[in-house]
Amino acid sequence: MTSIRSHFVPDNIEGVKLGDEVYFHVTNLEQDWDVPHGFAVKNAANAEILIMPGETQTLKWIPDQVGVVPIYCTDFCSALHQEMQGYVRVSPAGSNVPISFSTGKKAEADATTSK
Ligand SMILES: [Cu+2]
What we know:
The chain is mainly beta and 115 residues long. It contains one helix and ten strands.
């Protein structure tokens, strides 16, 4: 995925299965040298990564629970820093949910309750 103020692309990932080895390769697209971005998965056993402008860093994650897991920026990057987040849905092992991803779309449950 890419990171630039103030979002990740994509920021909504489906089709990850429990026990998968997930590698997030995050590229910071900023043109200003002093705007690093962070990246972390909520409740992951490892720490976050810090990505300097123009760099790509990789974070490995093995989900240990089924559900929707937030991902987020861990470095204060702008006034909209807290908007820099997204979601990964973890499905049960062996389920047939295909890998898919999108950007800027609200989670399904969210969209149906807000109507
Ligand atoms: Cu940030």
